[in-house]
Specification:
Blueprint: H1 19-28, H2 42-57, H3 71-77, E1 90-99, E2 104-112, H4 118-131, E3 135-146, E4 149-151, H5 155-167, H6 169-177, E5 184-193, E6 196-204, H7 211-229, E7 232-235, H8 248-253, E8 255-266, H9 267-274, H10 278-296, H11 305-315, H12 323-326, E9 330-336, E10 339-349, H13 361-369, H14 381-406, H15 410-416
Parallel strand pairs: 1-3
Antiparallel strand pairs: 1-2, 3-6, 3-8, 4-6, 4-7, 5-6, 8-10, 9-10
C-alpha cells in the first residue's frame, strides 16, 4: 500500500504508517533517511532504513540487522542513519601482569580483530611479560589538544598575537574552563607561519578522551584571542592539534596519554618462549624497527603497534581513527648482562573510559573486564589505568613479533593457524 506524499506519520507506538508506506515516502523524497527517528522509535527507524537500503541495493542485510546493543542510546549518541551493527570477533590475551602507577595486577586483554594469529601472538607476549615479573608502565604526560588557526594582518601583528597569548594564559584558562565542569586548561603554545598564528591549547580531560570537551573550551578561548588581538579566527582546528593524522608534533610534544612500558627478559626466558637469543632480537629491532622505519620515513618505529591499539580500541569503544596517532610508537631494545630490556613508548594515545563509544554495552563490558569502565576515583585514574594496560599490551605484541622474526617463525605461524 502506498500513500500520497502529503500524508505524515508521527511518533506513535505502533507506528501509524505501514512499512510499505514509509518505504514509499523514502522513495518519493517526501521523507529523508535521517528523519526517520523523528517519526519512529530508534529500533523501528533502523528497521525501516535497513529495508529501504536492501530494496535500493538488492543486498540482504539480515546479519547486519541482528545485534544486542541498545539502539535507543546508539542511534542518538553514536551513529546517524543507522541500519544495524557489524560484529567483530573478540579474543582475549593474558593474563598480562602490569606494574604501573594506575594499573597493578594481572589483566585479560579484549582484542577485537579479524586478523588470524594476532591474539595468539599477543597472548605469547603476555605470557613472557608475566613470567618476567610484569611490565613496568608509566604515564609520561597527559593532555588533549586543539589548535585554532588565526589570520593576522602582517608578520608584526602575528608576533603581537603570539605575545598576547603568552601573557594571558590565565584569562584563556578562565574562558575555556567556564565551558566544562571536568576539564582543566593546562596551557597554550603558539606557532607563527607568516601571517598564520596557530595556538595549540592543551587540556586535562580526566577520564574522557576529550575531543568534544577541548573543542568547546578552545572555541571560547579562541573568541577571546580574536576579540583582544584583532586576529581573525579562520578555523577552530588548524591541524597543528594534530587530530587523527600522523604528525611529528604529537611525537615530540605528546597528545592524549603519553605512556611508556618496559620489561627485562633474561636469556633463559628468551630461549624458552621465543626460541631465539637476546643478540638476535636486538638486531631485528635495530635493523627493522629503527633503521628500516627511518629509511621509510615512518613516524612510527615499531613492529606492529597498530595491531594491538586497533584491536583494543574497537573492543573498548575508542575512536578507531585515533589508531593513526596511537600507533606512532617507538620500540627500543637495550642489551644487558644476561638478557635485554625491551620498551615501547606511545607518545600519543587518545583514550577514555567515559563518553563516545564507551557507553555501548558490548564495549562497556570489555572496559569492565579491565576494571576501567566509567569514571575513576580520583577523576582521570580510569583512563590512565586503561592507557597503562594498553601500553603493556602493545609491548606484548612487539615482543612476540620480534621473537617470531628473530627465530624465522613468522610465516610458519601464519601457515599453522591457516591464515
Amino acid at each position: 500500500m502506498s500513500v500520497s506524499p502529503q500524508k505524515k506519520c508521527y511518533s506513535v507506538t505502533p507506528p501509524s504508517c505501514s512499512m510499505d508506506e514509509y518505504l514509499q515516502r523514502l522513495r518519493d523524497g517526501s521523507l529523508k533517511l535521517y528523519a526517520l527517528e523523528g517519526e519512529l522509535s530508534p529500533a523501528e527507524a533502523v528497521r525501516v532504513r535497513r529495508r529501504y537500503i536492501e530494496g535500493e541495493t538488492g543486498v540482504s542485510l539480515g546479519k547486519v540487522g541482528s545485534y544486542t546493543i541498545d539502539i535507543d542510546r546508539v542511534a542518538h549518541k553514536n551513529c546517524e542513519n543507522m541500519i544495524g551493527a557489524v560484529q567483530v570477533p573478540v579474543g582475549v590475551a593474558g593474563p598480562l601482569k602490569v606494574s604501573g602507577e594506575y594499573a597493578t595486577g594481572e589483566f585479560y586483554l579484549p582484542l577485537a580483530t579479524t586478523e588470524g594469529a594476532l591474539v595468539a601472538s599477543v597472548n605469547r607476549g603476555c605470557g613472557a611479560i608475566t613470567r618476567a615479573g610484569g611490565a613496568e608502565v608509566r604515564i609520561l604526560r597527559d593532555g588533549m589538544t586543539r589548535a585554532p588557526v588565526f589570520a593576522a594582518r602582517s608578520v608584526a601583528h602575528a608576533r603581537e598575537v603570539a605575545d598576547w597569548v603568552a601573557a594571558n594564559v590565565d584569562a584563556l584558562a578562565r574562558a575555556a574552563e567556564a565551558t566544562t565542569s571536568h576539564g582543566k586548561f593546562l596551557g597554550a603554545v603558539t606557532t607563527v607561519v607568516g601571517t598564520s598564528v596557530f595556538v595549540r591549547m592543551e587540556f586535562d580531560t580526566k577520564d574522557a578522551m576529550g575531543m568534544n570537551m577541548v573543542t568547546i573550551g578552545s572555541e571560547k578561548a579562541a573568541e577571546l584571542i580574536a576579540s583582544a588581538t584583532g586576529a581573525h579566527l579562520v578555523a577552530l582546528s588548524g591541524n597543528l592539534c594534530t587530530d587523527k593524522k600522523p604528525a611529528a608534533v604529537n611525537v615530540v610534544r605528546g597528545r592524549g596519554r603519553s605512556v611508556c612500558a618496559g620489561v627485562w627478559l633474561d636469556d633463559a626466558l628468551i630461549s624458552s618462549v621465543f626460541k631465539t637469543d637476546a643478540r638476535t632480537m636486538a638486531e631485528v629491532n635495530r635493523r627493522k624497527n629503527l633503521v628500516g622505519s627511518a629509511a621509510a620515513g615512518s613516524l612510527g618505529f615499531n613492529a606492529h603497534a597498530a595491531n594491538v591499539v586497533a584491536a583494543m580500541f574497537i573492543a573498548c569503544g575508542q575512536d578507531p581513527a585515533h589508531v593513526t596517532e596511537g600507533s606512532m610508537a617507538i620500540t627500543t631494545v637495550d642489551e644487558g648482562e644476561g638478557g635485554l630490556y625491551v620498551a615501547v613508548t606511545l607518545p600519543d594515545l587518545p583514550v577514555g573510559t567515559v563518553g563516545g563509544g564507551t557507553g555501548v554495552e558490548t564495549q562497556a563490558e570489555c572496559l569492565a573486564l579491565l576494571g576501567v569502565a566509567g569514571g575513576g576515583r580520583p577523576p582521570g585514574s580510569n583512563a590512565r589505568k586503561f592507557a597503562e594496560i594498553l601500553a603493556a599490551g602493545v609491548l606484548a605484541g612487539e615482543l612476540s613479533l620480534l621473537g617470531a622474526l628473530a627465530a624465522q617463525h613468522l610465516a610458519r605461524a601464519h601457515r599453522t593457524l591457516g591464515r
